[in-house]
Amino acid sequence: MTTSDRRTARGPMRAIVDIGSNTVRLVIYGGPLRAPAVLHNEKVTARLGKGVAENGLLGTRATTSVLAALARYRVLLQLKGVERVDVVATAAVRDAINGGAFLERVAAMGFSPRLLSGEQEAVTSAHGVLGAFPGASGVVGDLGGGSLELVDIDGDTCRHGVSMPLGTLRLGRLRAAGDRAFGQQVAKALKKADWAAEPGSTLYLVGGSLRAFARFAMARLEWPIDDPHGFVLDPADGLRIARALARRKPETLRPLPGISTARMNSLPDTAALLAVLIRRLQPGKLVFSAWGLREGLLYEDMPAGIRGQDPLVAGMSAFVQEHGIPAQIGAMVAGWTVAAAPPSGVERRERLRLAATMLCLASAVVEPNLRGDIARDWALRKRWIGATTTERVMLAVAMLGHAGRLDVPPALAALITPAALREAQTWGLATRLCRRFSTCAPQSLTDSQLTVEGTRLVLSVQPALAALVNEGVERDLRALATHLGLKAEVR
Questions:
Q1: Which residues contact 461 (CB under 8 A, 6 or more apart)?
Q2: pLDDT tens-digit map of 213-272
Q3: Cys bridge to 209: 85, 123, 270, 281, which one at CB 3.0-4.6 A?
């Protein structure tokens, strides 16, 4: 992108206040528009929907808690100078008899609250999924405290969005009559909403309770990646884990990292609902998404040109620039190394190679004593929007290769094919060679070339740069050539 393009791709800070049935949350976003970074995130668990589920009214205590949180958010936003603030309310306020009066009190605080209909809530959450998984197709299920939203998605379109009173705050009461009766009530709600899914479709799952279930499943499966975003679960495994979890009492569950006590207590009810959905909808796979309603609001406001950007490359470019690596240098290095790792024909793989190249370059400027776990922390633990589990592993493998390590932990190697592992190692070794030889200086990149000629991997260098070829460069060239089954030559 040109300098002007990069400037327009980054916007000012923007905040979203989400008044949900369980929590009221403030999130302030910044960074690139296509891959917004969370600058501030806090919530208050007010359980606003609890009274609605019991008697149709927003309770006095919950309302007071929400208004106190909003007063704090108002001051924080003023202190941080955030001018664009979107306030949305969902199922609890929508279903409450006194919801209108509550919104008037919110407006009196200086906010402009917007009440989303059930269909608007479903579609907005679906837009969040489409923003995180470009081209996604299947069904989005968003579970909140007051409701469950379902909507069909296909590429860039949403249809048949529905909202049903099956939120986590209602599930305990619905399950009181037994799991058989609970399953019948969920089936009745689906039928009333005239909702069904094509068997074999991907089911994208959104919401804090469902992400908590994902973390629980990841722990049960000893998953080597601990970020639930993008986690793919086979429906048979999901159903088995959900059924076992649904039968357990909250007090018997051991604490797990990343799951609050409140989420842990609601896990059995969440699992019971998910088990019914898996049986009824018969999905081909389950995919968990950290992007939902709030990110859907951001996605809906993105210009078409920004939506068309790749979120992984956009997020990676911003990340490496924070470490002093201009995105254009990453692109130049990726161009210099392309002969060693020509496009494989796998859809969208080149954008992953570019992202891996940038990540490797950024890792080189980190203090040596901090590099030990950097491949795990950056590739596997940092949340990369637009990256699948396979792609995360390839990023980690590339970083290991860049560090001169071709020994990949078996748990990671098991998640990708041998061909993908070898390809990612090539990316790392090639970037290592380029960085050592050129120090990523633009002139050294333009006055040299890496090519494959028959059985030889050739590094061609202009005479003025010949002194850059030292023992270390020759060693890295041989390592890359050996990995590719070639012989190294400096010309």
A1: 447, 448, 468, 469, 490, 491
A2: 999 999 999 999 989 999 999 999 999 999 999 998 887 888 888 898 888 999 999 999
A3: 270
293, two tokens: 């309603």
Residue 411's CB: how many other CB atoms inside 10 A? 12
Q: Are residues 94 and 143 in the same domain?
A: no
Which whole number is the average pLDDT over 310-316? 96
Final residue of a structural domain among 97, 115, 133: 115
Instruction: Give the pTM.
Output: 0.92
Flag whether 302 is in a domain.
no
Do 38 and 110 belong together in one domain? yes
Residue closest to 19 by CA, chosen among 84, 88, 82:
88
For residue 349, what pLDDT is reported? 87
Strand partners, 458: 451, 489
Q: What is the b/e burial string over 462-488, where b = at least 16 CB atoms within 10 angstroms of the residue's CB?
A: eeeeeebeeeebeebbebbbebbebeb
Task: State pLDDT tens for residues 82-95.
Answer: 999 999 999 999 99
CATH assignment of the domain containing 47: 3.30.420.40
| Torsion of Cα atoms, 255 then 259 then 265 then 268, to 10° | -100
User: Does residue 227 share a domain with residue 125?
Assistant: yes
The answer to whether the CB of 268 falls within 8 A of the CB of 245 is yes
Q: What is the pLDDT of residues 62-119, one digit of tens each?
A: 999 999 999 999 999 999 999 999 999 999 999 999 999 999 999 999 999 999 999 9
Q: Please name the residue that has the structure tokens 């589990």.
A: 389
